[in-house]
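SAMPLE LOG
Freezer: B-3
Tube label: C17
Construct: single chain, 330 aa
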Amino acid sequence: MITPGDEVEVCRQWLQPLLSAQGQEVTWKVQADGDLGQRLWEESRIVADIPAMHLLIGADCAQLTSERLDAAFDLLGGSSDAVLGPCEDGGYDLLGFKKASPEIFENIDWGTELVADQTRERLRELDWSVAELPDVADVDYLNDWERDRWLVTGRKALFFDRDGVINQSPGAGYVLNAGAFHLLPGLAEVLKTSHEAGYLNVVVTSQRGVGKGLMTHAELERIHRKMNDGLHKQGGPGFDAIYAFTGESTSPYRAKPDPSLVNAACLDLFIDPEPSLVIGDADRDIEMGQRAGVGTTVRFISEKPVGLSADYTVTDHRELRSLLQKLTIA
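STRUCTURE (predicted):
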């Protein structure tokens, strides 16, 4: 649920890299008018008559983990009519139920330390059996974020160079249009394995053809749409984010081996470089990863000369997937 309504696309673009790794569709809705209780009921009533388990969750609690969500569903799957996830400040980060009722959200002093207690009272008035999860702390102030930021900044990623690693190498030139872009075999399986192991998949590529006037930004976007569409057709996920240095003076990044492409991705997506991998076919890719503090470098063998050692070497995506499986098991 989003407020204001004219910011839906902004929120979608901001959160897309964080959500796409989940492999699930996300429905974006503009919040209804009224206080928080009215807005929560407006969303809840949509599923009020659907016989299923439903969870309402907040977006300001870094301690709301997948284990906490699993525990809530387990409790709802038993004899409980509702489950409450209280917060230390008197609110809650999670409310689950098998059926919805507007009374749950009525006469609540929203934004105060009374919210959880008043919600418990509403649930008792409905004569519902209620299970509770352990208390957690949410994020209201800067010091709360400093306490919990480690919970969301420890993500890991595979950073992929593009030409020669993701798609067939164009040689000394550039891939200037979507028709000249051809995925290498086996990549979709690599990306699936990566996601299953908890990695984001991020493209970090130099595309100087834009800066040289050989292609437009629109054509570069078409190429990358073809890339992700092709991966989806092969049963894999698309890439979670794409960072491209175009050679233009206005580019926010610098040319490899400068680490700015990787640094930007780590900042935007809360990625820790140390448990991450960079995969490239050129010395500049390996050096970029090393300078960015990426923990593991992998050279994808191509026609490019080798002057800098990487931690691992692979010749195709079958070998890369096998390596990834060994590393994540270890």
